Amino acid sequence: MTILASLSPRSLSAPESGIVELVNYARGRDGLIPLWVGEGDLPTPDFISKAAQESLSAGETFYTWQRGIPALREALSRYYQRHFAKTLSPDNFYVTGSGMQAIKLAIEAVTSPGDDMVFLTPAWPNFAASAELSGVRPIAVPLSFEDGKWQLDIGKIEAAITEKTRALFVNTPSNPTGWTATHDDLKAILALARKHGLWIIADEIYGLYSYTGDRAPSFLDVMEEDERILFVNSFSKNWSMTGWRAGWIVAPAAIGQVLENLIQYSTSGVAQFIQAGAVVALDQGDAFVAENVAKAARSRDLLCDALIATNRVQTLKPDGAIYAFLKIDGVTDARRTALDIVDKTGVGLAPGTAFGEGGSLFMRACFLRDPKQIAIAAERLAGYIAAL
Ligand SMILES: Cc1ncc(COP(=O)(O)O)c(C=O)c1O
Question: The pTM is what?
Fold first, then answer.
């Protein structure tokens, strides 16, 4: 047996990312406009970085609170009061080493190997992959794509629930589709979860990237106190902190010790200087988030208007998140087309094949970038599409 084959089947079956293939193919080319990964074009603002530097300089380099420093959990509480008009105690917050780790821990907390987890597709591939790594079967329920918009069919979720189902994973606004659940959608999902005794894992990391209101509808708006809902969240997108690897979970206080234990046995907590930056992001970063959202809104319009004007792109403007998920007439192989597009136009897109059922003919473009650059990318893409 080779050394590789002797690894566990679970780790061997973890998929390679379909986005990374494209990035590796064209990374560093002259004039490249990279819209393939989900991040903005700005580094973290100085006022946040300075707080982390000061913490490091002050010698805050020791082991720290597993659940997160009290100052950060208090800042989270203030953030939810401001943006969601919800009074949550610091005991409802658990700091994690990224949104990704929050997802992994949430799945670990509510499922056992052999269980099923229902999730909506097209989806960021990491939900299903992290379930599989925990021995959990991800069951895809595709949203339907009609007249350029994504729609939820609640009946399809109910039909996918079996006696093995433990959790419903709901990402709204969605990466990659931008589908944004309405309050009625959320109420219907919550009713299903209550009826079947399921947990909801709510990934609302793009909640402030809403183009129809101040923020997207949240389960927080429709739930009672202490329901079986774990919210996973991240500092990455709101405050341009993708490289910091910091996130959080919102959970009923009653399960706090269990979440702390899961943190203990995975990372044993997040570096204190990272958390010091995160406190400042929350307390002083609302204006920066608003700038990011305004930039995304402008770039969304520029990109989508130019592409829809070709009359060959079916997708309408997304209501939320930071992606255009494009269905282009005549594209039958998104992976091959994404390679061709980067070769001919220098615009890097992520092929929809990376996002599971229902997305294989689409292409994802992240528009959280300088509108001037997005205008150039839109012109190049429109030229390519018109010539297809
Ligand atoms: C829907 C969604 N959830 C979670 C994450 C994880 O973010 P991070 O691990 O950078 O905090 C991402 C990143 O792209 C995402 O799109």
Answer: 0.97
